[in-house]
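Structure ticket #2291
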Amino acid sequence: MASREIISFPCNMAGLAVKILSAFSRLHPSWMKYLGPEFQLPYMRQLEQFLAQEEKSGKVIYPAPENIFNAFNSTPLNRVEVVILGQDPYHGPGQAHGLCFSVQEGVAIPPSLRNIFKEIKNDLDFPIPQEGSLQHWADQGVLLLNATLTVEEGKAGSHQGKGWEQFTDTAIKVVNEHCDHVVFMLWGNYAHKKTALIDESKHCVLTAAHPSPLSAHRGFLGCKHFSKANEYLESHGKKAIDWRL
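Resolution: structure written out below.
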């Protein structure tokens, strides 16, 4: 495991930022090897200061610190088979738990996730789930990664442009370089831009409209990404993902 000495805790940092660093220090070693050094770079120091100021101002931040790196801990680097990229966490109480598009059990299923379930029903004829947790996918090797890992309560996109994107772009580059035959599902214009980080001669990139109700009928519904992903994985001697929840 990478040495924890690469993580330092500035004495003037507020509690939230310290909790985030503490959670990061427990990151799965397969990711720590490549992502640990990011926490010594200037952009991450600036992000830590931003989060500390947000907490000082009394703002509520989602998800809880222990869940911010849930995508990485649920899906170690050596087990990544599929990457689904979201933009930022849900900003309502009890929703976000560190996996893109996923909500915690007992929470109402958001519209975009409903459309994801609808497409799986159309594609694979699996029943539409009654719960919105995608932990079962993550446990099988589906990296459910948001580009931005935190958000202020009630304010979508509020932590964009603060540094998280550089961190998660690095994670995508790590997958691109150190994994073989990964399926990247990129939904919506924002996610499509990440194609520039991926070697398409080495991996499978599937693009479609975003599953949001505003755009799902412009190419997400009917994209058959879930069956296509399994076909690609199986064609390279890998196990298909069980998309059933």
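Closing remark: The radius of gyration is 18 Å.
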